[in-house]
Amino acid sequence: LAKTTQPISMDSYEGQEVNITCSHNNIATNDYITWYQQFPSQGPRFIIQGYKTKVTNEVASLFIPADRKSSTLSLPRVSLSDTAVYYCLVAPEYEGFKTIFGAGTRLFVKA
Amino acid sequence: DTGVSQNPRHKITKRGQNVTFRCDPISEHNRLYWYRQTLGQGPEFLTYFQNEAQLEKSRLLSDRFSAERPKGSFSTLEIQRTEQGDSAMYLCASSLRSSGNTDTQYFGPGTRLTVL
């Protein structure tokens, strides 16, 4: 099972773009990369998922280089409400039960 | 709101008592997962169901824990003879396993268990 490594914490200011990078050196061919956001006392919320290159939705962008050994979650123009823990996960396409959560990255957005 | 609901949201119990939690997944989802999360850590996988069949169970899961998903709809997680170390947030997630889509999990709000 692929393991992920991401920074423990990051600070930012309102209006800035935030990039959180995750390493997954042992990613397998059929693994997808998924990012979740979690606020205190709530369940994780799906943000974005990708396999290669770039994926963008209304919330974030996900950049995946050709070797897929890392990925970067990009949050444009963060606000105070983006303060949360962000988890990078790697799991096979049809085997979500193999998802392993690490400790995540605690993003703190300041005014 | 992801469409996954969990009840109760909070449970306080005394050590040695049994507790049961309920999860109602998104209606068309055929997979259901249980996780446990302690303060400062990411969710830890406990078990999962595909329809009514329990297909995977963590080796870390004590025999005091049991889960069911009758008729492949809602699920219950029971903890017998609770211990203080069982205090945690218990999260439920559901997903749709079908061709053409990845197994993306959608989480409920969790049940916070406190064992005194």
What does the model show?
The complex is a heterodimer of chains A (111) and B (116). Chain A is mostly beta strands and 111 residues long. Chain A is 0% helix and 49% strand. Chain A has strands at 9-13, 18-23, 31-38, 45-50, 53-56, 61-64, 70-75, 84-92, 105-110. Chain A has a 5-stranded mixed sheet with strand order 1-9-8-3-4, with no helix packed on it. Chain A has a 4-stranded antiparallel sheet with strand order 2-7-6-5, with no helix packed on it. In chain A, a hairpin with a 6-residue loop joins strand 3 (31-38) and strand 4. With 116 residues, chain B is mostly beta strands. Chain B has no helices and 11 strands. In chain B, the strands form 2 sheets. In chain B, strands 2, 4, 5, 6, 9, 10 and 11 form a 7-stranded mixed sheet that branches. Chain B has a 4-stranded antiparallel sheet with strand order 1-3-8-7, with no helix packed on it. Chain B starts with a strand and ends with a strand. Chain A binds chain B through residues 32, 34, 36, 41-46, 49, 87, 91-97, 99-104, and chain B through 2, 4, 31, 33, 35, 40-45, 48, 55-56, 89, 91-93, 95, 97, 102-110, 112.
